[in-house]
Design goal:
This is ABC transporter, substrate binding protein. Keywords: Signal. Helix content is 31%, strand content 14%. The strands form 2 sheets. Strands 1, 2, 5, 6 and 7 form a 5-stranded antiparallel β-sheet that branches. A two-stranded parallel sheet has the order 3-4.
Amino acid sequence: MKLDVIVDYSKFHDARIDNQLATDSLIPDIAQLQTLQDYPRWKQDGLLLNYKPVGWDKIWPDFRDKDGAWTGVFVDAFSNVVNTTLLAQKDWPREMKDYLRPELKGRIVVTYPNDDDAVLFWFKQAVEHYGWDYVAKFNMQNPIYVRGTQAPADDVESGKAVATFSTDGALVPDAKARSRFILPEHDPFISWAQRAAIFKKAKHPEAAKLYLNWLLDKKTQKEVWYMWSVRTDVTPPEGYKPIWEYKNTSHKAFEAFMNDRAAVERFRTQIGLYLGEVKGEPSPGWLGVHPQHALSN
């Protein structure tokens, strides 16, 4: 079965899907996005197909809609990623204030927080803990600002930068990798279950169901995704706890943040006053209103 995975920022995908639904020109069968706030709205509007894949009862209850309108398919988390060849372990930044150390000036890469809501939430928590003065001091570190959350991971791995907090990483890294994903001990980090849903207007609903069954299968959850599983019967890698057992992260906090769009926009505008406006082309390029095939790269 041919599978086209069309990659773009979630904030562009959801706008694209809303427009396609409004113009009766829907392309995707499934939406698998970071924009958690879209799924209850789509459900309320009667746009989603209620479907519970095999093993539904093994998915952590907070990560699934009770009627099967949407489900979390993997847990993502943004926290520290460091280049282990350029920084000694004792110098790895873990907590928020570590990124203010003088020796890291000009060596940090970060996604524009006003371009990605998960990174924006990292700064929201930083402001709640340390005030707006933290943001001003961070900007004086002359960080490298980029678009998209894959770019920071690539820049740290390549050595263009030595650290970031605006991306994810493998809990069990490749032995050849020069970067490592590191959790803080005290400060909060961001986590959420990336959601997926099948549209009632899907052209290939049976294929969509098959995809969800494969993605949520215990074997797939254990072997394919490199962070935490949404299933309660998949044990995290050695050294990690189930994501819902960490005291310094809350998927519910991120979900609440995402749901209050007025508050998100107010904070986004304020952060722009300190860090500047987003610059540069989006990393996937401009896909238009009706992209139908996976990008060549």
